[in-house]
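Team,

Forwarding the record for the chain on the shared tracking sheet. I've put the sequence and predicted structure together so nobody has to dig through attachments.
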Amino acid sequence: MSVQVFVAATAREGLARVRRELGDDAVVLSTRPHPQGVELVASAYGDLSVPAASEPADTASNSRILNELARLRGLLQNQLAGFAWGAARRRDPARVVVMQTLFAAGFGSALARTLAARLPRGLDADAAQRWLRQVLIRNLPVLPRETDLVARGGRYALVGSTGSGKTTTLAKLAARGVDTHGAGQVALVAADAFRIGAEAQLAVYADLLGVSLHVAKDQARLACLLPELAGKKLVLIDTAGHAPSDPRTRDAQALDGLGVRRLAVIAAAQQGAAIEQAMARFGQGAAACILTKLDEAPQPGAALDSLIRHRLPLAWITGGQRVPEDLHRPNAAYLVDRALKGGQLDTPYALEAEDWPLLAGVEAERAERRTQKGTSTLAGINAG
């Protein structure tokens, strides 16, 4: 077995050297403090003693040995991550505060690491928090007030996952349109042929608002209908909701060819992974985003993280069922403060002090994989 000794300033740098020189499957055998930082003793995975192919081998025994070595490797890596986390807290506590704040509020590791890396030197913890707030506000893409899509008018289709609140949001937008243009200048189109009662629900809203309702069961019917509504100032189209992985979601992109602008309706009260899937599927090519169900989202950080990374402008936010009272223009400062406050909630899911080193180890591995794929940084972030 060939063993090599590595010396680095930090455990993380040492682990990176080990993987770079010995490969991703290298095994760290031991670590200890060194005058220059930390010393790691490691071996390439292939150098471990395993019976040659020509020798009789006990496959089950070898498998157990390899599994045990993999387990030990994981334990050592987590221990190294703990050392690295402790060293980071002593060396640069402000950066650790920034990452803890973002993780606790539901923001993702890619954004957290990018912002922590761009934190100006010499800031204390309070100054770092103020800097972080301003950077998040500056980078949250919010449509300016003068860019009011309802006041501007046009043809808009609300697209999004099942249960994201498209129909209720459409009714709120229609009510605003009636206030701005008058009932005779607003038309609703029911294009959801899948959900039972979708047309009936929209008919109730149309009757209450005094606007016309039209039905388009498919793209062909919609293409024929739109010229008939050319005289309307505002046309709002309610589409069918599907899971982001459903192939039928591609039908929404065909609306672009009909001169219809898409508004991605994203529910904030979802897990970060679900928000990311919805944003990637429905947000691509959309004119703007409407963030719904904020009243049900105690930690909207994941939704803001996705908006920042995808650079999709936020046009409206909703929180409640009232039409149209629960439709609001977004305020970046309010949303960021709401998200950061959510990280202070005392819930069973909040991390304890002893959990942070383990999280740091997991996130370090993810960051390394993103680096190898070339997806670890957010080049468009304006850190000021």
